[in-house]
Amino acid sequence: TLIKNLGMGDYSDKASDGKVTRAEFAALLAGALNIDVKTAMQDSPFVDIKKEHPNYGAISGMYLMNIMKGDAKLCFTPNKQITVVEAVKSIVCMLGYEIAAGQNPWPYGYISVAQRLDLLRGIEATDKPLTWDEAVDLLIYSFEVPLMSADYMSDNGFVYSNNSSETLLNRYHD
User: By the 8 A CB rule, do 95 and 147 touch?
Assistant: First the structure.
């Protein structure tokens, strides 16, 4: 599969309708960003995950990049099933569109941005657990989206733009 060919892990042993945990999704996103999870092993604020966890580096990296967060009790809940809406939020942030999504209340801003970017394509953005099929589809669709980035600082804050030719694939997997 594309995911395996990009060096993002082999999830072929997972049932397509099986549910994805938050730790597994963090590992998928780290792979999409081509993060060396061994060097991303910074100290994490989460009290429920130890450095020995197989996805500690991915979780730490996603936290440091402000892509995935924990709860108010500093728990990441790595074994909890991630919901479709949580996954959509994480992908929108990974693509750099968090500022656009944050202009509307949770979760509607993220869903609206995901729809505008054509990330959902038949995936219903709800609080139901994300399946492996949906996770792979979201990831593949995200590879086609132009990345948003802060270009410079003005008197009114950062000025953002997207370079229609720069995507996850050509930035991190070229």
Answer: yes
